[in-house]
Amino acid sequence: MLAKPSEADVAGNLAEVNSRIRAARLSAGLAPEGTRLIAVGKGHDSAAMRAACAAGQRLFGENRVQEAEAKWPALRAEVPDLELHLIGRLQSNKAEAAVALFDVIETLDRPKLARAIAAAIGSVGRRPRLMVQVNTGEEPQKGGVRPRDLADLIALARDELDLDIVGLMCIPPHDDDPALHFALLRELARRHELPLISAGMSADYEIAAAMGADLVRVGTAIFGPRG
Ligand SMILES: *Cc1c(COP(=O)(O)O)cnc(C)c1O
């Protein structure tokens, strides 16, 4: 079952999260604008997404291709200027569906997937922007390329396969200081001349915003607990 937060709650939570992002940036001496909020819709129904759209939100993230396919094509017809990011693990055999639906795929993390996405771009005729997920904590169970393998993956994706790589994404380990991981991610992005980092979730988006993250991905703080 997908959870059903009230429309008023969604609008209020969005305003609160946006104001916290601005405050975090200002307190760090950054311009208030510059961190874009991705509203993460996984586990919440279309009505919740519609409520966020009514409150002015246009940038959304989903974890699973199948759930996104069930929710977003209809919403896209109602709200044409939506931007949709895939933030969950992508299996190579779902690359075509992901390329058909998403504007940005944030979770490129292995050569096989880079090749599958390149093939899908050829067959589908859409060219989503891509971000490389980096496993900054080198956790065995987590998706993402190890920092030491990042250069090879970027070389393959950008130079050989001509994919449009725009940045890096990470999910820090639960028990670590997230700021260390966000700083490493920014340094890796700088080294590879990539403009964007996607960092921060409900628990740590203010830290990410204060560090100048370009994108934060927030679900629970906007839509409440997942169903
Ligand atoms: C679910 C998810 C989020 C949002 O998590 P919340 O804690 O609900 O804000 C962000 N990023 C990724 C990759 C996720 O899977």
Strand coverage percent? 15-25%
Q: Helix- and strand-based class?
A: alpha/beta
Task: Enumerate the distinct ligands.
Answer: pyridoxal-5'-phosphate
Uncertain runs: none
- Extended strand count: 8
Question: Which features would summarize this protein structure in a list?
Answer:
227 residues; alpha/beta; eight-stranded parallel β-sheet; 8 strands; 44% helix; globular; binds pyridoxal-5'-phosphate
Write a brief caption for the model.
By secondary structure, the protein is of the alpha/beta class.
Task: Describe the protein's architecture and organization.
- It is a single chain.
- It contains nine helices and eight strands.
- The model has no long low-confidence stretch (mean pLDDT 96).
- An eight-stranded parallel beta sheet has the order 7-6-5-4-3-2-1-8.
- It has helices spanning 7-27, 46-54, 65-78, 95-101, 111-124, 150-160, 178-191, 205-210, 220-223; strands spanning 36-40, 59-62, 83-86, 104-108, 129-133, 165-169, 196-198, 215-218.
- It has 227 residues and is of the alpha/beta class.
- It is globular.
- Pyridoxal-5'-phosphate is lined by residues 40, 42, 63, 87-88, 171, 201-202, 217-221.
Helix and strand layout, with pairings?
Blueprint: H1 7-27, E1 36-40, H2 46-54, E2 59-62, H3 65-78, E3 83-86, H4 95-101, E4 104-108, H5 111-124, E5 129-133, H6 150-160, E6 165-169, H7 178-191, E7 196-198, H8 205-210, E8 215-218, H9 220-223
Parallel strand pairs: 1-2, 1-8, 2-3, 3-4, 4-5, 5-6, 6-7
The structure holds pyridoxal-5'-phosphate.
